[in-house]
Amino acid sequence: MDQKILSLAAEKTADKLQEFLQTLREGDLTNLLQNQAVKGKVAGALLRAIFKGSPCSEEAGTLRRRKIYTCCIQLVESGDLQKEIASEIIGLLMLEAHHFPGPLLVELANEFISAVREGSLVNGKSLELLPIILTALATKKENLAYGKGVLSGEECKKQLINTLCSGRWDQQYVIQLTSMFKFTDSLLTPASFLALLTYLKHNFIFFIRMTLLRDVPLTAEEVEFVVEKALSMFSKMNLQEIPPLVYQLLVLSSKGSRKSVLEGIIAFFSALDKQHNEEQSGDELLDVVTVPSGELRHVEGTIILHIVFAIKLDYELGRELVKHLKVGQQGDSNNNLSPFSIALLLSVTRIQRFQDQVLDLLKTSVVKSFKDLQLLQGSKFLQNLVPHRSYVSTMILEVVKNSVHSWDHVTQGLVELGFILMDSYGPKKVLDGKTIETSPSLSRMPNQHACKLGANILLETFKIHEMIRQEILEQVLNRVVTRASSPISHFLDLLSNIVMYAPLVLQSCSSKVTEAFDYLSFLPLQTVQRLLKAVQPLLKVSMSMRDCLILVLRKAMFANQLDARKSAVAGFLLLLKNFKVLGSLSSSQCSQSLSVSQVHVDVHSHYNSVANETFCLEIMDSLRRCLSQQADVRLMLYEGFYDVLRRNSQLANSVMQTLLSQLKQFYEPKPDLLPPLKLEACILTQGDKISLQEPLDYLLCCIQHCLAWYKNTVIPLQQGEEEEEEEEAFYEDLDDILESITNRMIKSELEDFELDKSADFSQSTSIGIKNNICAFLVMGVCEVLIEYNFSISSFRVLLWRYTSIPTSVEESGKKEKGKSISLLCLEGLQKIFSAVQQFYQPKIQQFLRALDVTDKEGEEREDADVSVTQRTAFQIRQFQRSLLNLLSSQEEDFNSKEALLLVTVLTSLSKLLEPSSPQFVQMLSWTSKICKENSREDALFCKSLMNLLFSLHVSYKSPVILLRDLSQDIHGHLGDIDQDVEVEKTNHFAIVNLRTAAPTVCLLVLSQAEKVLEEVDWLITKLKGQVSQETLSEEASSQATLPNQPVEKAIIMQLGTLLTFFHELVQTALPSGSCVDTLLKDLCKMYTTLTALVRYYLQVCQSSGGIPKNMEKLVKLSGSHLTPLCYSFISYVQNKSKSLNYTGEKKEKPAAVATAMARVLRETKPIPNLIFAIEQYEKFLIHLSKKSKVNLMQHMKLSTSRDFKIKGNILDMVLREDGEDENEEGTASEHGGQNKEPAKKKRKK
Question: Are 966 and 989 a contacting pair, CB within 8 Å?
């Protein structure tokens, strides 16, 4: 039968073939086709013959085709056919599908949809035919019966797609169903197509199959529907099946819905990351982990690669990604960002077009996140409203950690981001050339946090990714070398951490380090010291690097530049401190000189004592040559020898011998000769130039410290042991010399040094300069000897000799006088507490324990359980008693300096208290009581005490009620702007009085009010961002505002209380100056914040069904208690400025008038801004009234007209007065100044 069909099909006409096919029974043809296909014979020719003999122009032929299609689909789905035969059959069905009439196409499509919804498909191979059927259906122009109505072909296609997407999809068909709607031919060029095939090796077969499909024409609405359906299937699929589906979605996104595709992908993996982190950080181990960590990271990496490749082909997709993630900048930056989205952005930086945009976005997000953190940490009010969340910095570091799972595509972006953060937010140079270094106290600022984050990113990336290490090290060293004039301490810290992590690993990059050594002579001394300290671990394992450094330092020792020689000394001293000598050499060997290159260090052993000792002795030989150089070089050597001795004790003999030899050059050995020191030899005279050559006082100081260390450390260990006589001789000689100098200095008079009171100490003559240098040397020697002899009575005579130096030298030495012992002690305590908190934060517990003199050794275990807060509270009570004692004295006996220092100490200690502890509450109550019950007129003390009160209050609760009470006190003391109004005085805080109310307390409360407004504005911005990101569905919009109600209520309460605060101050007769200027600016900020709140309610008014009642009350309060008074205050300020103009110009001197006018201009400058802010507030209130159907303007009075209008009568009067004044001045000048030149007009600046 099959041969006959084929032979008839070979004829030119199909008439006989049609007749034969009609004679066959219903099942014969399908059985024949099934047998041929299953046996593996070529079924394509038979199928083509059947289609030729079954034209769609005849009803019988159409029905026959319909049965053949059904049979072929079943064959393909059965899995009994070979792949080649199945593909051939599907291809033929695709070619013939467009011949079908519309009704049969609808039937075929419905069969497919039913099979998908029921899950009856076996392998889904036949689904490749569905997009062809839908495409053919869309081309039919006639009306088709569909359901109960009649639709066009395009409308039928749309309904079928909706039906398909509304049903359930089996997860194994999701990718194929999604791929039906993509198009490839118009998207990819041949070159791009080949690149994509190489890129998607694991999807090669599937992708080839998809490219053979024709496009399904979709409207934007249909594309969105398909995308939503595909995205909803993510959670139902296996993790490994998602990347192919994401790829299909990205291809489909070129038709539209790019935003939905990106949002869906990012949201899904962000939620998956969050769930995975919660599982990993759970207190209990879970029996079943949803997703293995490694599998999740590899899938995320594949997804990111798919998206990046799609962006390379479709830049619009990249723009949509950046736009989507930038939306979070308007509100909460943490809403849109997650570890997955950050990794995606970092990968996109590899595309040149988006590199700057993405890095700028991430940089801005980081700083904004740290600013938010700073705002939250400083306000208990915000902490109660905003829940704890993860920050961008944590997410970025998580990306670094995740990048270990073959995320090579993010490493370059991480490195660029790290350096951008360090370059942008590192320490800056101030105007006088000094550097603001990053310290723990400053690190609380957002910029320092961002810089530290950049360093952490680079360090962690360096640890994980070997391929990027050399680039990181090279960029760090380049910045150290090329930015010598800029602060680079943060890069040196990073370099130190890198070297400490893996010195052996960095041996492969030693060439980069040795290149940096060549620039040591040109770098600042501090940079050289920190650079050499950073690379010091490398020097212990790299012989070649150490040799290179030695050569560079020796060359720098004899350079022309003084800084280069000082750098050489610093480098040699650093080497001596770090290359410890375990053995000891006899003193006779100290002169031995060996080349460093002759000693080979075994890097696998921890120490090589022989090599280290030889190396250090060679350095000592080099340093002895420094003793013939300038005083600055010698001074650095003397300052460093003591540290060398403490770190490398076996070098004591060599160091002490060097110091003894140097001292003998300036020491008079005869015991009866006065003075005992040759000061003339310490001074260099070159013509008229006099300079210090030998810092003798520093030499003696170094010797004294070394001797004290030897007596306290070495001698106790040597008791009972025999020691070489030659070794002890050095110490005995030095001790004898210091005793001899002490005895003879006591006997010496100032005349012996030619420093009597008649001597010349002026800086304009060479003799005066010489005498000054000698006087400072004598003072320095006396200080050293006082320390040396402190335990015996001789120091009292030396102290008298020290204080008898002439007064002119004392003044040039800037000695401080007039301070009591208690004041000096308090200053020392304050500096100690500050230093401990800044630089020794982890050791505060030990520090406080050491302060407790009641501790006993047996109670150490119990003391370990005492918290920092408890220990701090104990210390605070001591200083509280001291302050109360001071405050109990009379006003004239009140020591304000001591009181100020006590408050400063209490402020430092209060920072160690836990805000939730009862000790903190007690501290707040005590401070508040002090402010309420004590009245002192000292402005600095008042300011310090009020700052302490505010710092405690904001950590406990919002300070708005406190501000309101203080504003009432200020108003009561200063009076009202209307002189006829008598203000009732309130006495909430006695510290507020007529002397302190303005400007001290007034400026403090205004500053705090500005901070509160900043917090409220931040909350409003956060709410606006949440509203803009909500979905537009009725369900979402109705529920979205519920979580925001507590925040809205808190905002309105804050603004309401602040409004009463400003209500008091705008009625206060504030003195001209900073108080008026600051109040006007804060009022402008207040109205700007009110406007922001009104605009927020404009956004949510429709969804929430109106505005809350407390918002209406706030608007009413602003209209009745603030706006009218603001205009009255403006008039008050302007009237004061006018009166100043009329009275000051005629009576005061020109300079005073100019100063007064400048103050007037400064005070009146914010007035236009305030008026504009009020008008903007009223403008948006009108809009909100219309939208909410609530008349919010009924309580707002009409604003005062601020239009300019020239009044003729007043102008004439002013002109006449000016004319009379000029005539009077002219008459007077005719008698006294006829010969003077006329005054020149000043140019307006």
Answer: yes
